[in-house]
């Protein structure tokens, strides 16, 4: 298992820990307690220090990193546009009021979507043979 795979598993673990903590605090305590779960998101910073070392990437690793980032942002944009269209569909004739407390949750869940999609794509792309050349 190389550094990219270790980083992907670490990010999936932190994301799962964040989601479990957020929803447990939401159902047990109510707002604003779930924002304490954002402290787990600080562990994403740890991977910059925990997985440092010599850069031993080859062309295949670079291709996997590039493809997994492309997949992650594709998933994020599909979910962002889809959720926007759902709000537009249900509130087409009027206005919708969004509390300011929702904005940090939206940003954090967008980050979790990107991190999880990139990590899953990284792990899956290491399992399948990639074609040579730019893709």
From TrEMBL:
<keyword id="KW-0472">Membrane</keyword>
<dbReference type="InterPro" id="IPR019235">
    <property type="entry name" value="DUF2178_TM"/>
</dbReference>
<keyword id="KW-1133">Transmembrane helix</keyword>
<dbReference type="Pfam" id="PF09946">
    <property type="entry name" value="DUF2178"/>
</dbReference>
<feature type="transmembrane region" description="Helical">
    <location>
        <begin position="9"/>
        <end position="27"/>
    </location>
</feature>
<keyword id="KW-0812">Transmembrane</keyword>
<feature type="transmembrane region" description="Helical">
    <location>
        <begin position="71"/>
        <end position="90"/>
    </location>
</feature>
<feature type="transmembrane region" description="Helical">
    <location>
        <begin position="33"/>
        <end position="51"/>
    </location>
</feature>
<protein>
    <submittedName>
        <fullName>Uncharacterized protein</fullName>
    </submittedName>
</protein>
<feature type="transmembrane region" description="Helical">
    <location>
        <begin position="102"/>
        <end position="126"/>
    </location>
</feature>
